[in-house]
Design a protein that fits this description.
- About 40% of the residues lie in helices and about 20% in strands.
- It has seven helices and ten strands.
- Strands 5-4-1-2-3-9-10 form a seven-stranded mixed sheet.
- α1 runs antiparallel to α2 (about 70-100).
- The chain is globular, with a radius of gyration of 19 Å.
- The chain starts with 13 loop residues before the first strand and ends with a helix.
- Bound molecules: zinc ion.
């Protein structure tokens, strides 16, 4: 985006909710009906490969030695790459949320995330990779610049809840898809962020536009070719209110 914003306070009192994971780093839903998905598969894969390489080098160390120059360099590289992608992510996300007039962001509590989202093994890997606590803290700091407040809330069950019938024990998740015997089928993480949002806002949530997917290319988060949103949808009259927000944000 090339528009620059006067970062005092957001222009409206819209709300957003984030679902955080490993395959999809952030799934976000806003009360303005926007959905964003930041894909993390490739980043996570690379993080895992570097971790494996570190383990391989460690197994070859002489007795009594615990590290080496090469190992330390790999650790630093792994951290730097993750931090770079994370920082770019919350900058990109906050710019978008600011443009949507969002002034409050709900984010799931770490304990909850660890308890309900993944298996123990995935947890260990994901926790290490994503560094939730650090991510949340930095998100809060950056959000302040935009006048957006971040609230940590329990998101227990939101990842399993069917938005159509409310069932939490009949739904099944297969990879990215959540299905329910009532006939519902949707993207699991986006659905979770929408359920989480509806739980914490009293505002009416506008009908959802097609989700926008972002991929990391080592420099930027750019819209994925697999993004479900066709280009022409952006000029659809029903979505005009979005561009109004952007325009009035110009300074
Ligand atoms: Zn259902």
């Amino acid at each position: 985006m090339t528009v620059t914003y006067a970062r005092d306070t957001p222009l409206a009192d819209e709300t957003a909710a984030l679902d955080i994971g490993a395959n999809n780093l952030v799934a976000c839903t806003t009360t303005t009906g926007e959905q964003y998905l930041y894909e993390g598969r490739e980043l996570f894969q690379r993080f895992r490969n570097t971790t494996r390489e570190i383990a391989r080098l460690q197994s070859k160390l002489e007795d009594g030695r615990y590290s080496s120059k090469r190992i330390r360099r790999l650790y630093r590289k792994r951290t730097r790459r993750r931090d770079h992608a994370q920082e770019a992510l919350y900058r990109d996300l906050l710019e978008r949320l600011y443009a949507e007039g969002v002034d409050t962001v709900y984010i799931g509590g770490l304990t909850d995330v660890l308890e309900t989202h993944w298996s123990v093994e995935t947890n260990a890997k994901t926790h290490n990779f994503w560094a939730f606590k650090q991510f949340t803290e930095r998100l809060v700091c950056t959000a302040e610049e935009y006048g957006i407040s971040v609230k940590v809330r329990s998101e227990a069950w939101t990842s399993q809840e069917c938005p159509q019938c409310g069932s939490t024990d009949r739904t099944t998740r297969h990879q990215d898809t959540l299905t329910c015997p009532c006939g519902f089928e949707g993207h699991a993480d986006l659905t979770a962020s929408e359920t989480f949002l509806r739980r914490h806002t009293e505002k009416a949530v506008r009908p959802m536009a097609r989700p926008v997917r972002f991929e990391w290319d080592d420099h930027d988060w750019s819209e994925s070719p697999r993004s479900h949103r066709p280009k022409e949808q952006r000029t659809d009259p029903s979505t005009v209110h979005h561009s109004e927000n952007v325009a009035s944000g110009e300074s």
